[in-house]
Structure formats: structure tokens, C-alpha cells
Amino acid sequence: MFSLSRKDLVALVVFSAVVLTMPIWLSPLGAAYPGLMQKFAIYAIFAIGFNILFGLTGYLSFGHAAFIGVGSYTTVWSFKLLTMDIVPAMIFAIITTGVFALVIGYFSLRRTGIYFSILTLAFAQMCYSLAYSVLTPITNGETGLLLARDDPRYLDAMLGAQANVAGLPQPTLFGNSVTGYTGFYLCAVVLIIAFFVSQKIFASPFGMALRGIKSNQTRMNYTGFNTKPYMLAAFVISGMFAGLAGGLLSITDPLAGAERMKWTESGNVVLMTILGGVGTLFGPVIGAWLIKYFENIFSAINTNMLNNFFSFLPDGVQSFVVTVLSKFVGEGWHLTLGLMFVLIVVFLPGGLVEGFQRLTARLKRRKAVPDGATSVQPAE
Amino acid sequence: MNVFLAQLLNGLDKGGAYALIALGLTLVFGTLGVVNFAHGALFMLGCFCAVTFRYLITLETVTVDPEKLSPWGAPVEVRTPLVQNWFGDFGAVLVDYSVPISILLAIPTMLIIGIAMERGIIKHFYKRTHAEQILVTFGLAIVLQEIVKSFFGANPVPQPIPTDLRGAADIGVWFGMAPHVLTYPWWRLIYLLFSGLVIGGVFAFLQFTTFGMVVRAGMADRETVGLMGIDIDRRFTIVFGLAAVVAGVAGVMYTPLLAPNYHLGMDFLVLSFVVVVVGGMGSLPGAVAAGFLLGILQSFASMTEVKSLIPGIDQVIIYLVAVIILLVRPRGLMGRRGIMES
């Protein structure tokens, strides 16, 4: 059950090393804050899960933000009602989102193509609007669901583990606080497990069936394959990943708001996956990291920093360059994001992973040419 | 009954906006086969054409009038719009009617923007997958809205209704009811008529002109039309420009009803995609019908009576209807078989 092919094992080891050494290699890039790295890990989980659906089956869901929201709310409710321990919270988040995904998937998967996309979008938007209006008792509306000191926490109370500290209780893992670097390593470990699961799915017969559905669903049906349960399973698994990501968001910052369910969040995860490379193992992770990196780093740059950076230029030129560049950073970082998407889709349609593969292939070919006697052209 | 009529009318103007956006979206999809996520941004650009026009026309000269003194004894600054200096009273009318007049600015601007967009980027995406089209147009939409944001700021820019057209029309009287029973704001009525006019214009253009005939033929079978020696790509480029113009003028006229901000396009885009899909991808009458239908349903769902019966219905009605229609009628109201299903 835990065995992997040699290639996958190498990939997993490399991936784990990269994730766990994040604090080291991100510090020269100026992103080695636990809070930010947690986001990297969480959104990578989200994108990996999305890729299981979109990458393997080709069904483009525009409603995955709903699952992140459901996961967040469930986690906070678990904190409020049961215990501050994160393990039950995560389990509940995954289960609830799974049930949610089952219902939404059951209806949405009756249609394909853009009709499927719009159905998932419609369901997600309904969740979003309801979270703001009718479901306010559960979601606490615009304020967002918060922890309070006098929450019941029945399980904690029963075990007598009610911490009597001042201020709000913090989420714990078996009694240990999960803030700062502990929180990051928690997310990192979950990310590695998620990556492993996605590797297993990619390599399994189940994964092969999903790929078959992507390339030709009709033919799959004709060969006597009932594709429905496979699709539904993929949808639910992918939803569970999103729920887990939502749960982790609430664990690292115990607050759940409806804005996480907005359709722009669903759009974001689509962009992450496509940017990195759809249907590849590493692609979604890279895409998620890049987007989150740009969001946090570019949006933090301000005019003063630009002025300092370009202070070597003559005054007029400096102010011109700074005025132009300041449109692309800080508040305007979305402009950079948009341009980046357009450029990448135009010039690198398969995402960054494909670009990387093309690059290595070209380098290999160039190396092979000098001793290229092996590749003899066949006679005409 | 009157309440019913009033809600019907309320829904119609919003439905008109949905229908206009969805019409352009379907036109682009039907001709070029491109899923254009930047279409909402075009609507937003139309809104800002009106904002720009008003800005230009209200450029003022500030003169200090030594004769007049404020109650504190300081000279009063007199601001007069330049156009009023040049044209007198006619200039004042120009300023007052800036919103409808800016359609004249919006048409060429949107045509140029649309054609530039199609030739610059979308041209390269005919043969790509829908996911890539969505991504590139989504990126384009972000770029457009950020550019608008950097010029006009993030706050909504309200546009005034011309003074003569403020207030409400007593439509009840026209139908023989007592006065003040059924009133409807003039501008909404105008928007409704305007959207009907534009929709009718687009259909007439496609139905009764040679150009429209070629375009319709190209929608049905692009290759064959190409084989007949017709440069179908050029016509389709113009169709894209036309769709941009429709979205743009829809935006211009909508500004007095809803103060435009830079992300307005995205908000309308999601709804209009739902509209297009409910109407059936690639079906122009479907898009128009679904636009009005959803607008009216939304308006009915916001009635207090309905809301107290089913709480929260006003928030979700559009999506709920979309889900039901798609589950009952797989290709939307009037969709054709085999379009966008894989």
C-alpha cells in the first residue's frame, strides 16, 4: 500500500527535502516567514487536490472554493464545540467536505464540459451567498466565525483539559501549540502526505481509469466501464483535499470567513494548476507557490523601496521608472499577475513544468549531437 | 397585480443588461469558438468610457471673480466648464446629457479595443483548448481592470442621470390605472428600450445584411465558407468588435443605475456566463431570453413576501434556476447538441 515505483520514490524524497528545507532556501528570496510558508503549503495542497480532478479527468470545476470554505467552518466549529486539538478538527473537515462534494458532485457530474463548470460555479456561489445571508447563525456572516473564550468545547471539558490561559485558546496538537514554525512544519508534513497520496492515485489503476475518461469518455463507456462512480470518487477526493486545505487555513488562523468561498478563489486554484502544469505531479505545487509568492512579495513592495533601488539613475529617469514600475507592484500587483498569465499561456501553454521539460530535452539533444553517431537517419 | 407588474418591470432593466452582455458573449463564442472571460471587462470599459467622457467635458476653468465676495469677505472662485465657455447653453446641455452622448465616444473606442484584442491575442487561441482560452482571457481581464484601477482609482464613480430624465414615469396611467399606482424610473425605462433596440439591431444586422448572412453561414460551417473564397476570419474579427461595442454601450447606459468600479466587469461576467449557459451555448435567442428570464426571476425573489417565505432566496435564485435548468434541460433552454460538451 505504501510502495512506490523507483521514479516516484525519488520524486517524493526530493519533494520532501524541498518542502522541509523551505525556511532555508526561501530566506534569500525574502519569503521565509512561517505565516507565508504555511500559506505556500496549504495552497499547494489545494492545488494538488484540484489537479486530481482537473488534471486526470479534464473536468474543470469552478466551485472548489466552496470546499475550502466548508472545511474552514467545520474546523472552527470543531474547535468551538469539541476540542482545541487539531486532529479531530482535520478529520471532521475532511469528512464534512467529502459529504458536501458527494452531493454537489452527484448533480454536477451529470453534465460535462462548460455545463459542468457552470454547475459547480453555481453551487459554490450559492454556498457563498447563503453563508452571508441565511446561514449567518452557522457562519457568523461578514464578521466571520471566531473562537470565543466561553465556547463549550465539550470534549476538552470532559477530559478536564480546558486550558486556563488568558485570552483566546490556541489550537493544539496533543497539547503542543501549533504557531510559528511548528505550524509550518505541520502544514509541510500534511503537504508531503498529500503529495504522496496524489502520487499513489496517479500510479493506480484508478488513476489510469480517470485518464481514460479524460481522453475519451464515450469509448470508456463502450468498453463496459461505468465511469460515473470513478468520476464521483475523483470529485470527492479532490473536494476532500480542498477541505483539508480549508481546515489548515483555520488551524493556522482560527477564523473562517465567507470570502474564502468567493468564485475568485476557485479561479485562483485553476490558475495555479494551469500555471504550473495540468496533470503533472509537481505542476500545481509550483503554480501555487509562485502565485502566493507574487501575491505576498510583489504586493509588499512600495514606492520608497523602488526609489532606493533605482537611486543610481539620474533624477528624471528615476522618477519615470519608479512611476511606471509602481503600477506593477504594491496595490497593482494584480497587473503583474495578469500579464504573467497572458504571457505564460501564449508562450508556454503546458505550464511551467512543460517548459522545463522542453528546456531539458533541448539541452539533452544539444549534448547528444556531438557524439550523435547513434542516431542514423533511415534511408529514404 | 400592480406589485406583480412593478417587479416584472424592475427585473426587465437588469435583465436587459444581462441579455446585452450575454448576447456579445454568445456572439463571440458562436463565431470564433472562444470562451471570452474578458467580456465582463469590456462592459466595464464601456462604463469607464462614460466616466472619461464626463471627465473631459467637465474640465473647468477656475476664475476669481473680484465682484462677488463670500460671506467671509474672500473672493469667490467661479468654476465654469470649458464647453460652457465655448458653446454657452448648448455646452450646459452637453454636460447634462454626458451619459447618453458618451455612447458616441464608446462605439469607436470599443470597436478599436475589441479588434485590437482579437488581432493581438485571441487570434492565436482559436485552436487551443477552452481551458487555455479561459486562462488567457481571464489574464487579459485582470490586466484591463488593473489599468482602469490605476487611472480611476478603486472607488465607484457615480454618473448622474440627465436632469430631464430624473424621477419616475407614471406608467400606470398609460394603461388606464389610477395615478401613482405603478411608477417606474425614467432611466430604467430608457435602459429597457435601449437594450431592446440594441438586441433588435444586432438580430436585424445578422438577419438582413449580406455581412450578417456570411457570419451566420460561418457560424454554421466555417470551413465551407472559407472555401468559397470569403475571408471569414476578417468578418469574425469585426464580429468580435461588434460584441465589444454591444458590451460597451450596455455599460455606458448602465452607469447611472450602478456606479461603476473597476471590478464591476468580473461581477457581471459570472452572472452573464450563467445566463449564456442557461440559454444554451451558441444560441443568440437563448441568451437574450435567459437574460430577461433571470433578471425578472431575481427581481421577484427580492420581494419581501417571497423572502419571508423562503429566506435567502434572493441571493441564490439565479444559481438555483441555473442548476435546475441544466439538470432538466442538458443544453440549456435553446442550446444545440454537441457544443462545448467535451
Automatic annotation (TrEMBL), chain B:
This is Branched-subunit amino acid ABC-type transport system permease component. InterPro entries: ABC_transp_permease (IPR001851), BCAA_transport_permease (IPR052157). Keywords: Amino-acid transport, Cell membrane, Membrane, Transmembrane, Transmembrane helix, Transport. Coiled coil: none annotated. It is a multi-pass membrane protein. It is found in: Cell membrane. GO terms for biological process: amino acid transport. The chain crosses the membrane at residues 15-34, 41-57, 97-122, 134-152, 189-215, 236-257, 269-297, 309-328. GO terms for cellular component: plasma membrane. Its main location: membrane. The keyword tRNA-binding does not apply.
